[in-house]
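Before the break, one more example. Copy the sequence into your notebook; we will annotate it together after we see the structure.
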Amino acid sequence: MTAYWISVYQEISDQGKVDAYARLARPALEAAGGTFLARGLPEQTYEAGETTRTVLLVFDSVEAARAAHDSPAYQEALAALDGGARRDMRIVPAL
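Here is what the structure looks like once it is written out:
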C-alpha cells in the first residue's frame, strides 16, 4: 500500500545544516524509492496558520518508507542536520 512521508519544519536554527542535509537526503530517499511530490512554504494556510517548510514524498509502502529512513545513506543526512532544525516527520499509509 502506498505511503506518504511528511516532514514539517517547525523551526530552522542553522540553514547551513539544513542545506547539507538536503544535499544528502534527496539522493538517499530517491535511491530508496521515494518520489518528492511537494516541498517548500505553503501558498495558503488555515486554522493554525503556520507558514513552515513542508516536504511530501510518496513511497510504494510503509515498509519502503521505513527502510528509507533507516538506511545508512539517510542516517548520514540526519547526522548532517543534527541540531539544525526542529521537525515533525511521519509516515502515513494511503487510503
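Residues 3-93 form a domain with the Alpha-Beta Plaits fold (CATH 3.30.70.100). Strands lie at 3-12, 35-40, 54-59, 85-93. Try to locate both features in your own notes.
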